[in-house]
Amino acid sequence: MSWVAAAAVAAAASAAITGYSSYQNNKGMQEQAEADAKATAAQGRVEAARIRKEKEKAQSTARASLAENGLDVNEGTSIVINDEIERAGNYDANMTEITGYNSSQRLKAEASQYKSNASTALAAGAANTIAAGAKGWK
Q1: Tens of pLDDT along 22-69?
Q2: Domain range for residue 121?
Q3: What is the DSSP string of the chain?
């Protein structure tokens, strides 16, 4: 094999390795972004559940305090207090879930971009390998 042919093989191998390495890197980043998206959405749901439990504890504490002071917990100010705790707790829980979902969607978009980059890297690596091989054989 001549030096020119050996150089062509080396250039083709280098192009193939570079393309495949870029493909693997982007594929790994895609998988990580997808895993992060799932974890972020789940974390939002878990945190929302925690907020709802805290809301129930706050309502229970408020009812107990009102009853301890001799107030009827089924009318008047007691109902207003309970409803306000309910409203605020549900708002916080819902916003937490929405925030987790929105963050997961951003990560899914990143994963999609990494997938596209991986495909492009594979195609570019193949094209560069063919070009390097063809150039060496002229």
Answers
A1: 889 989 999 999 999 999 999 999 999 999 999 999 999 999 999 999
A2: 3-136
A3: --HHHHHHHHHHHHHHHHHHHHHHHHHHHHHHHHHHHHHHHHHHHHHHHHHHHHHHHHHHHHHHHHHHTT--TTSTHHHHHHHHHHHHHHHHHHHHHHHHHHHHHHHHHHHHHHHHHHHHHHHHHHHHHHHHHHHHT-
